[in-house]
Amino acid sequence: MSFGSSLSACKSAPPPFKTIDITDAEYGKGFSLSDPDGKTRTLADFKGRLVMVFFGFTQCPDVCPTALTRAIEVRRQLGKDADKLQVVFITVDPERDTAELLKGYTVAFDPSFLALRGDEAQTRATARDFKVFFSKVPTGSSYTMDHTALSYVFDTAGKLRLAVRHNQTADDIAHDLKILLDAA
């Protein structure tokens, strides 16, 4: 064994991800939806930044506000690198979640968060591409939405890398995002 190869054998591998590593996933290739100002946004708009995508709806009583509040804490933990993370909230309820409502909703959590929406067909196609389930559930004279509660993380090159369970902590996510930033 040469001296150089013995040194490389001593290098420690990066710590394992605490979230779900889906680096080789054949789904979740991107999105093309409208922001609250009507501009079409795609994953390419955020090249060079990590992108965390969450599907939800503004009238969600618990899962969605919890995920967005957790994303605030993740950004805080990233410190000087907070601006290297773009949080994207995609509505699964375009019938009620107007552009104006979405803008106010995400800004209430963090002004840097971006809400996206499409029509019913675009919403279904985007959700299908991410393997996200959603369904309208009648509740009296209105309805709620059942939906997948995972967040997805793209690396700075726009490759889908992580799936984040709803019960994972901001510490877990920040840990993994720092690994992705260090690898960039």
Automatic annotation (TrEMBL):
Similarity field: Belongs to the SCO1/2 family.
Cross-referenced InterPro entries: SCO1/SenC (IPR003782), Thioredoxin-like_sf (IPR036249), Thioredoxin_domain (IPR013766)
Name used for this protein in its record: SCO family protein
Domain Thioredoxin: 8-182
Highest taxon of the lineage: Bacteria
Matching PROSITE patterns: THIOREDOXIN_2
Pfam families: SCO1-SenC
